[in-house]
Amino acid sequence: MLTVGIVDDNPRDLEKLELIVNNMENVELILKANSADEVYHSIQKTPVDLLITDIEMPGMSGYQLADFIQLNNMKTAVIFVTAKSGYAVHAFELNVHDYILKPFNPDRLIQSIDRFTEKKDAGRVTGRLFIRSDGDLVVVPKAEIIFLERTGRTTTIHTINETYETYQSLGELEGDIRESMFIRSHRSFIINLQYVKRFASYSKKSFVVIFEGSSGKALVTKEKLKYLQENYF
């Protein structure tokens, strides 16, 4: 069951969100509020899987609320539903799941929630990766891999506990992983989307990927980030 919270200072818009969510199967609306300040206090006690929020509201804004969620590493995804288009770039830097402009067709939000549910279910990475490292055959649980990095003739596999080096190429390892949450983000990197914390501006053609559980950083091209926004976030 997917738990959802909604917040909008406009009563009609809040009612519309409530009707959409309540008519969906396997979705439970457990939080309804007309201010981000109320949600700020509520989710610290009772987190939700998905928060659907307006951006411009009296007091705390939806953007500030999403920033709080990210800074505290809360396992709550955010969908912005707003009449303002100017926040889109900053929103994706916060790694929000979606950005929907008002007025919107209910199917647009339903599809977004369904896509999040599919991503959440697909995120259960299982299996093991076998690599050759220093003459040994090392077994690495896929769920522990944060990202893979190609440098020169070697590939470094960063996990939540340690790193491994192998002469196997990213192409070889990519074929062995075969999990939907592993994405070839750049010619030199494969990233596990489960550990992505945020995307930070780096250059005109790429962004830096910041991870939970690792001080290491990867790169994602602008084109690949657009693909991720359309299909994963």
UniProtKB/TrEMBL annotation:
GO terms for molecular function: DNA binding; phosphorelay response regulator activity. Keywords: Phosphoprotein. The keyword Isomerase does not apply. It comes from the Bacteria. PROSITE patterns: HTH_LYTTR, RESPONSE_REGULATORY. Residues 129-233 form the HTH LytTR-type domain. Residues 3-117 form the Response regulatory domain. This is Two-component response regulator, LytR/AlgR family.
